[in-house]
Amino acid sequence: MSAPEHGVDAETVRKIARLSRLHVDEDRLEPLAQELNGILGWIEQLNEVDVEGVEPMTSAVDVSAPLRADEITDGGIRDAVLANAPKKDSGFYVVPRSVE
Amino acid sequence: MSDLTQLTLESALGGMAAGDFTSEEITIAHIDACMEAADLNAFITNTFELAIDQAKASDARRAKGAVGKLEGAPLGVKDLFCTEGVKTTAASQILGDFKPPYESSVTTNMKADGMVMLGKLNLDEFAMGSSNETSSYGNVVNPWKKNEELVPGGSSGGSAAAVAADICLGATATDTGGSIRQPASFTGTVGIKPTYGRCSRFGIVAFASSLDQAGPIAKTVKDSAILLDSMAGYDPKDSTSLNVDNGDWIASCEKSIKGMRIGIPKEYTVDGMPAEIQSLWDQGVEWMKDAGAEIVPVSLPHTKYALPAYYIVAPAEASSNLARYDGMRYGARVDGENLNDTYERTRAAGFGPEVQRRIMIGTYVLSAGYYDAYYLRAQKVRTRIAEDFKNAWESCDALLTPTCPSAPFAIGRKVNDPITMYLNDIFTVTANLAGLPGISVPAALDKNGLPLGLQIIGKALDEDTVFAAAGALEKAANFTAKPEKWWT
């Protein structure tokens, strides 16, 4: 598969920022596009590497994924879990309304 | 009493065992040194009161004959390791006043072995950086100075500066692309990243999970072996933790390297590298020969692709890992007009520019239509890089390379040029991509009197050979220089 053109414009940055859940001010879109293009352009050199038939790397040392019994080993620590919440009430997190 | 902060970890443990001084005494000596060294900005949070309590408890254990591997030693912890009840920041504002209700497995091991924790050490925000300048708690200053203030390297710059300045006997660190070895090289200290999977990642704030690995920064090769022996070990809480025994690393540091085959990768000679670094590397080759090693030229043809591959894999994994910071369950929250706006404003306020840049790169390379062209291709290039090493191991047992392409540079010099900054990791990042152990050993001072390191890279799980080669290198280099204490 051929690599995409590394032409990130302000509109693409707006979309990436949205996907990243990062607020970006309007006047920062263009400078960010230039920054990202600089980095993506540098990354393009990977297209020189012949990766035909090469498996993607998944692990440095070959090991099989460990299995364990599906049982509860922890819990009952509500107050510890909630201790760092920015807002909480009566044993619950308090979050902005997400369903109108 | 002589200055207890000048001791190595090995001699400090010996001194406490011999009853020459107590943990409380050596801990207080280090707390005093830490307070004098405030200008280095090595700590984000100090835990001096806790340290004195831990030291007293250690002395009480010792009196009863219970002595752990790190018994009573005052050490520092990179502020990327969760420490129960002690603020953990990752040098980011987004974590707010987060106090973990649990302890990382690495520091759990160290506490069980008798560590005294002096505090939480400064770093690049989320360990993303090579100079410590991305910390939202201000940059760390390198104890080594030349007319102007220099960076300590990164991301474990606080760990490296604290050890170089003799304000901690040793410190924990983490290495995703060179974050242990590059700051070790910049500060005249020893830093080892073990084989991926040796140290549990449980409770370490995640950056790029397939690359992140913990290790120590220490004053000597043997000190680094003592620390790693405590930090490493199987942990069921990390599914990538390897269920293998530690080697006899402390003994390996003194093993002869007679007959060891040391590979010299030709691709590690790069354009623009200072002549001094090339000549130090040549000197290293002579040292290894004199110690009885056989020198073998090797080729790692995909070396030049390591950094670009890294700057796909690491941001991609970071963008996924950092999705958890939503301001709902912990950390700082900035209220917006609705839920999405709250997320976006929380994250824009909480993450610094470099972290945001990497989240966006990562999001882009993982986004629909680009996954195959970027992330999948990078992971295939990574396989190529790992194959290069496997081929090299046909003819050698370990590699000798420079740690970094430069000496420590001035604060502010590279901060606005991401790619130049990224090039700092050119010799270290390959070991992360292939999951191999690598150690930086201080080898010489450059013409400006600043430290330079050499690196040994070994086979997966062969830390024994790495420690033996590093021990021989350390002995030959006889690096005894210390920074002048301008900060007291």
Structure description:
The complex is a heterodimer of chains A (100) and B (488). Chain A is mainly α. Chain A is 30% helix and 4% strand. Chain A has a domain of 49 residues: Histone, subunit A (Orthogonal Bundle). A two-stranded antiparallel ribbon of chain A has the order 1-2. In chain A, helix 1 packs across helix 2. Chain A starts with 9 loop residues before the first helix and ends in a 7-residue tail after the last strand. With 488 residues, chain B is of the alpha/beta class. An eight-stranded mixed beta sheet of chain B has the order 4-6-5-10-11-9-7-8, with helices on both faces. Chain B has a three-stranded mixed beta sheet with strand order 1-3-2. In chain B, a hairpin with a 5-residue loop joins strand 10 and strand 11. In chain B, helix 2 runs antiparallel to helix 3, helix 5 packs parallel to helix 6 and helix 10 packs across helix 13. The relative contact order of chain B is 0.14. At the A-B interface, helix 1 and helix 2 of A face helix 10, helix 11, helix 12 and helix 13 of B.
Brief summary of the model shown:
With 100 residues, chain A is mainly alpha-helical.
Give the secondary structure arrangement, pairings included.
The complex is a heterodimer of chains A (100) and B (488).
Chain A: H1 10-19, H2 29-43, H3 78-82, E1 88-89, E2 92-93
Antiparallel strand pairs in A: 1-2
Chain B: H1 9-17, H2 23-36, E1 43-46, H3 48-63, E2 74-78, H4 105-112, E3 116-121, H5 157-164, E4 170-175, H6 181-187, E5 190-193, E6 213-218, H7 221-231, H8 249-252, E7 261-265, H9 275-290, E8 294-298, H10 306-321, H11 339-350, H12 353-366, H13 372-392, E9 398-402, H14 418-422, H15 429-434, E10 438-445, E11 451-458, H16 463-477
Parallel strand pairs in B: 2-3, 7-8, 7-9
Antiparallel strand pairs in B: 1-3, 4-6, 5-6, 5-10, 9-11, 10-11
Helix pairs in contact in B: 2-3, 5-6, 10-12, 10-13
